[in-house]
Design brief:
The complex is a heterodimer. By secondary structure, chain A is mostly helical. Chain A has one domain: Up-down Bundle (Cytochrome C Oxidase, Chain A), CATH 1.20.210.10. Chain A is 64% helix and 0% strand. The longest helix of chain A is centred in the first third of the chain and has 37 residues, at 78-114. Chain B is mostly helical. Chain B has a domain at 62-193: Up-down Bundle (Four Helix Bundle (Hemerythrin (Met), subunit A)), CATH 1.20.120.80. The termini of chain B are far apart. Classes of the chains: A mainly alpha, B mainly alpha. At the A-B interface, β1, α6, α7, α8 and α9 of A face β1, α1 and α4 of B. β1 of chain A pairs parallel with β1 (4-5) of chain B, so a sheet runs across the interface.
Amino acid sequence: MAFYEQHIHPKPTTFLSKYIFSFDHKVIGKQFLWYGILFLFVGGLMALMIRWTLAYPGQPFPVIGSFLFPETGGAVPPDTYAMLFTMHGTIMIFYAITPILIGAFGNFCIPLMLGARDMAFPLLNMLSFHVAVISGLLLMGSLFTPLGAAAGGWTSYPTLSTLIGSPGVGQTLWSLAIFVLGVSSTMGAVNYITTIITLRAPGMGYFDMPLTIWGLGLTAVLNAIFLPVLGAGVLLLIFDRVFGTTFFLAGAAATTGTGDPVLFQHVFWIFGHPEVYILILPAWGIVSDLLSFFARKPAFGAKATALAMTSITILSTLVYGHHMFTTQMSPLLTQTFMTLTMTISIPSAIFFTNWLGTIWKGSIRFHSPMLFSLGVVFVFGLGGLTGLYLGTVTTDLYLHDTYFVVGHFHYTMAASVLLGGFAATYFWMPKMFGTLMNEFWAKIHFWITMLGLNGVFFGMMLVGYGGMHRRIYNPFIYEFTQKLIPINTFTTWSAIIMGFAQIIFVINFVHAVFFKKEKASDNPWEVGTLEWTIPSPAPHYNFKDIPVVKCGPHELGNPNVIGKDFQYQTEELA
Amino acid sequence: MTTMVVNNHLEREKMVSSIAMVMTLVSFSMLFATLMLGYVAYRFTAEVWPPLGMQRASLGLPTISTVIILMSSFSYFLSENSFLQGKLKAFRAYYFFTLMLGLAFMVSQLFLWKNLKLIGIYVDSTVFGSIIYAFTWIHAAHVVGGILALLFLIPSIRGTRDGGKSQIWLQNVGQFWHFLGIIWVIIYFGIFVF
């Protein structure tokens, strides 16, 4: 459409203007990164407590258990268990993945990869982070209320989430926190979309944008459209809890005049299904780029990948009913939703084949970002394929609400996004902080994480197929789940190993950010997108002169280029 | 390579802010669309409406609110037009008229809520009452936001903001103000009339 050049702002000098109230998209990106990593730790700790309870119910959680739950001698009590899985889901989805993939890398990458000096609305960008902090405080505050935090699951279905199911103030704070976070994300989304439309460098058409930007842009579109839907849902839930409205109270509407709990499920999933694509699209984009960069080949079918992601974005809005097959939907509806869900396989297969086509016969460099990207290809393949059994009505009726579902969505949302996030962190580290992380420890981190993660999530799918329900406190009390105890124990130990592997990452990351003397070069990975044409770490004005784009982002391995195997986007196509 | 470079400062501000405004209004529309979706679901699954033999709210006050908000939209339109034609006096007069009508709308809503209580429709008396209160509350909260947005036009009124910038401000605040009017009309016909 059009492009304009932003002014170079003076460099901030005080601590507050530099680190707290900064308008700079790179600083806001880093703020979101630290915010996300902090919550990743909290959510991860909760996951370990959940897993410990499932393997050793009634036994004290090691080390910190007796401090956290003194009344039971350190074992997780049943009501706390419900709070733990609720808060684990909420924190991981809204406070870890969203800030890291969308908040941190969205903010950091969009202007840099487009050749802009900042976002279109820097003030809005800053406010969006500060609103997210308020939301985080509300959520964490709910942990310290008299009856504890929300315990109705991350989906917070009524009547679990109305005053009947959870009388404490924790659930109200949860709803409020989600609403406030929705406001923050919508602000971010409006900013991202405007930036992508108006601030692309001269010469950069939409198909000259890196696929990372495609993923982030489509995510922003979904965020702007569907977060308000959840906003309306939780707003009515807050009204039900605080003002005594009767939207989601159970009862026959015509005779008693009360509401309909299932309506919340509809509203939740109208938002909720696009939400899973909101989470995964940035990771898809990043992986599509990184596979090409490290296979030293142009991305196979880049245009088709972009269009496939776009069609998935559109289709994702039409399939939410597959989460609700067991709510006595009319068979006509279930079959419609099933068919629409299955059509998502087509664009998914297209971009997945493109990923394989990209690495086919490439001269692959197995650096840490590439290892993590290949990890995404593997875990997303598994997660995507197991989704077919949940999208099909007949198999879903058996698998609904079992650990198979938990395993499936962890493979797609947690494993893929986590590995994608790590790939992005290792990859953009030099541009963010000016140093490279230690490659050896990065690879160790990858392999332990990869093994642990597959142990956890595959174990989950196995016990789920064996009939174990999600959200039960003690699987040992049912005869048919007692046979699954060894797998549960295995899953738990896999989780513990995976958890400890993250210490390697934290040490590596903190060392590279604060202590490493050796600076990274401007373009350590030898790729041609715009952010690698400027110094590492990126200066506060990004580009001294706005670059002019002359070729696509994946021009690697061109035999006509002499002396190197890649070319910058600012160079004429050889 | 179809990129054109926009060097005109105002031209670009207009473009950027109008794209953002469209996205913002899409977001707000989805919020209200979800509420209306919920209403439609309750309405069409109920055998009798209003349920439990409750009486409907009288149309008087909602109709007054509708007239006020439509007048304020029209007045805003005249205000913006007078500004574009350089009639600053008319611009100011219509602006204050719009602001007053906005406040009058809020007063009419207060009377509406009071009146509903008088005829026995409470927020917790069936989903019928819940819908009327919750939807009007949410809309009213946005009108308060709209009135605050109108206050952001004061520099244009006092003439301390330059003309081109004022034009962009007027356009964007106007879009939000008219949007609130449209939402109210939908609520009026959807909930009070039918």
